[in-house]
Amino acid sequence: MSETAAAAQTLNFQAEVKQLLHLMIHSLYSNREIFLRELVSNASDACDKLRFEALDDGALYEDDPDLRIRIGFDAEARTITVADNGIGMSRDEAIAHLGTIAKSGTREFFGQLTGDQKKDAHLIGQFGVGFYSAFIVADKVTVVSRRAGLPAGEAVRWECSMAGDEAGAYTVEQVEKAGRGTEITLHLREGQEDLLSSWKLKSLIRKYSDHIVQPIVMKKEEWNDEEKKQVLTDEDETVNQANALWTRSRNDISEDEYKAFYKHVAHDFEEPLAWTHSRVEGRHEYTNLLYVPKNAPFDLWDRNARHGIKLYVKRVFIMDDAEKLMPTYLRFVRGVVDSADLPLNVSREILQESKDIDTIRSGCTKKVLALLEGLANGEEAADKEKYAGFWGAFGKVLKEGVGEDFANREKIAGLLRFASTKADTPDEVVSLADYIGRMKEGQDKIYYVTAESFNAARNSPHLEIFRKKGIEVLLLSDRVDEWVVGNLAEFDGKALVSVAKGGLDLGVLEDEAEKKEAEKAADEYKELLDRMKASLGERVKDVKVTLRLTDSPACLVADEHDVGMNLARILKAAGQDAPASRPILEINPQHPAVLRLKYEEKHFDDWAAVLFDQALLAEGGKLDDPATFVKRINQLMMAMSGN
Ligand SMILES: Nc1ncnc2c1ncn2[C@@H]1O[C@H](COP(=O)(O)OP(=O)(O)OP(=O)(O)O)[C@@H](O)[C@H]1O
């Protein structure tokens, strides 16, 4: 190792770390006890990693094969130490892991902070507080760590001291450390003295870290008659249960234990929304304990975001973030899968190919969908409330499943919730089953409209006839909704039909008299339709008399097999080529503006263009040439006022 690396060096924190430290202290103070949970959680992960790496290289255990976490305190020095004999950190790793935040989406996360302590505390919880939570209770933190496999002389000492509540820099230097692993010493702030007690620390461990797989040991205390107080002995005692929670039977695990374990695996601050725990036997034997979080993580939409499943094989930790274990549309699920059959040396590459993994994934997917169904259809009001919460946080992600998971499509479709014309509010509360239950006598289709915003959907002219007849229409305004309807042709035998595509066929809901009227109008208006078509030229595929409108003069519809207008716009915005297709302009023969057009000579082309453009605007489209549109409107207004 070079001289410079060995000498103490002062390095600056990444700007975001400084910000996080500051926020942590100010926003999380009322949750100060979590620091112990976070440090123990990291220590446990470090032990897991060592156990896994040692599968290939047993020498990493050195002469210390029993993994454990040790917690101690020194009342005089006012310190608490959390030590593990896990994988440890090299100097470079300490700099990278403790001096920077490498998570994707970090900048976006900081952009969301508001300065309101309560809200920010919540956000920080979602971001993951981790190691830095030590600074809630300590104003100086010293980390001494040696990576397994490195010689005793190549350990690193990392230290950061806060001046007031600010810390801008830390020091690293090379030191000796006999045992591998990490020892973190917290120099407590004023007012934290209550933490310097065996009783207090033990109760925190039992409360937050009971489920940790490795033993958490502390020195035993004994009553000393001479000193008339409890004194520490040299004897160790294990404070936690120290067994893998998921291997225990469901009946033996309390709600609180499940919740505490969730916070560890998910690095979440909040309690989970729901969980499913089962042992699957048969061709493949595995245990899964899967949680649905309450809130979306800050990086839900980041393609490189971590996935939340930890894979174990026969209780040996294999990997975090095993993305193959959950389909992408369930990427918010957190938890553990422990397989009895996979080889211990399984790698990400092997997972990609493994049929066993496919089976486990499909089993886990079913479990999560069943869990969600249980909430969605639950008798208890609390379940429904939970499902509404789930939908608010993850509904958009679940929608992706309709196109992604063919085998479970109908099930996923059953879990979807939409806004509709029934309530005419943006709240997504209507299931397809609700919709079908409310269908009109003789109605055999599920109608929907897609638009870029809820208001554009709600006010779409295409809804006029539906509103008049009291037929419910789903109002879809998420981008992903186009993907949903593009992949979901029917539900429960009922076709999903866009109200803005193809010829409107209301089947038996159609009024015969109206139909006749329209046919008559089509004959009567044939000449006008032809003239308009000729005038609009390339902009339209056809011009027809409509059945859809009651109030508006015109609307645009896509031909049956063409890409819908909203989807075409989304594709265009995403830089993708939508197949070029022209819309059909439908005109309302009852409307005075249309009636008038029959007799228009001089300004016919302007009228036709304005009708087209306003139909385009009404359904959320953008004008190619807004200036000309405005000019035409002005000209027509002047013409009407006799100028
Ligand atoms: N006891 C430890 N032994 C070895 N490495 C550690 C230890 N504690 C922390 N680290 C390293 O520092 C990194 C950062 O820890 P930190 O707790 O801040 O975040 P995290 O655990 O990765 O994620 P989260 O913020 O979600 O908790 C860890 O990923 C790990 O690589």
TrEMBL record:
C: annotated segments: 570-643
Q: Which Pfam families match?
A: HATPase_c_3, HSP90
Coiled coil start-end: 508-538
Q: Give every Histidine kinase/HSP90-like ATPase domain span.
A: 31-192
Asked whether the keyword Cytoplasm is assigned, the reply is: yes
Annotated PROSITE patterns? HSP90 (PS00298)
Q: Cite the CDD domains for this sequence.
A: HATPase_Hsp90-like
Q: Which UniProt keywords apply?
A: ATP-binding, Chaperone, Coiled coil, Cytoplasm, Nucleotide-binding, Stress response
Q: Subcellular localization, per the record?
A: Cytoplasm
Positions of the UniProt region annotated as A: 1-348
PANTHER family noted in UniProt: HEAT SHOCK PROTEIN 90 FAMILY MEMBER
Query: What family does this chain come from, according to its entry?
Result: Belongs to the heat shock protein 90 family.
Please explain the role this protein plays, according to its UniProt record: Molecular chaperone. Has ATPase activity.
Question: Could you tell me which NCBIfam families the record lists for this protein?
Answer: PRK05218.1
Subunit and partners? Homodimer.
Q: What is this protein called?
A: Chaperone protein HtpG
Which source organism does the UniProt entry give? Thauera sinica
Whichever gene encodes this chain, its name is htpG
